[in-house]
Prior knowledge:
Chain A is mainly alpha-helical. Chain A is 77% helix and 0% strand.
Amino acid sequence: MRKFLIVLGFIVSILAVVLSVTPLYKVSAGPAVLALLIGFVLIYLSKKQNASKKVIQYIFLLTIISLTVTTYKAIFEKTELGDTQEIEELEKKSEEEAIEELNDLEID
Amino acid sequence: MKPILIVLLALTTSLYAQQNKTIAAGENLVFTASYNMSGLLTDIAEVTMQTSEVKTAKSTLLRLKCKATTYKSFDGFFKIRDLYESYVSPTTLTPYLYKRDINEGGYYKFMQYKFNHKTKTVQSLKKKRRKDGKFWEEKKNLSIGASTKDLVSTLYHIRNLDIHKANPGDSQSFKVIFDNKEHNVVIKYINKETINTNLGRKECYKLALSISNNDVLKGSNANLLWLTADENKVPVYAKFKIPVGSGELKIKSATGLKY
């Protein structure tokens, strides 16, 4: 049970770190909370079985990294538009072409 | 005499109903599009709806332009640069030319419809990019109904409806040509609702949209549109459910309105 939770804890915390660096960073909150819960259960089990807690620290470390990145992004990341030059040029070109097309059309 | 009067009255009413009373050139509506991921809404793109006047050799038309651009953080992940245009009559919103230029995560498609309302036909042009980077095109002549419109002009046409005369539960259907097929779009007026928007607290008409025989929009009453219950009928909020999830559109700013 303890080993299974350690493996699961690692998978979930790594997933949280990976998601936190992607644009879908908000989704990483779910795996991060799950990793924290697994961490607390592991501490409880380790105390009960008198086993080493060192490996659990890594799960917590990864989770804290992911939560820090997510929080930083949520506060400081600006929602600004990417490169719009291409689409602006397309808009102008499209209008010019449309006028030519419309000149040939029958408009009531 | 009486039946003639009724027919005349009905005709003038229907003609009057077709007149554009809402949309003016110079209007600029900006929206934020959010996508629902595991219950969390993430802002992914900015959508703008602009109108402008276009002068051709023979007439002056209204250009209705809808543009979707993903935010910088999403560009590396899934870049969207979509441009939808419709060139319509400024008095009746009847479309003459429709253009759709979409660039979504490397996928490119161009569609153009030239409307001929006398012959009730549409000259369609489709361009796509192959995997090797080369383009191929397909030209078709399609027959359409008398009132068939394109997607963009339908969106603006909804704003031009006399919703204040409708009762909750009333619905109206429109024929829309999309991807060379005619679809039946049904708009149902649900009720009036007051919601908080970036433009302030607004009383709105809540409408439900559905497309018959099509899977683009999912669920019943899951695709909703809130239009301000004033003469401008500004779309301030929309909720949509598509095959790959759900999301919403929220107004950011509205300038150049008619009233």
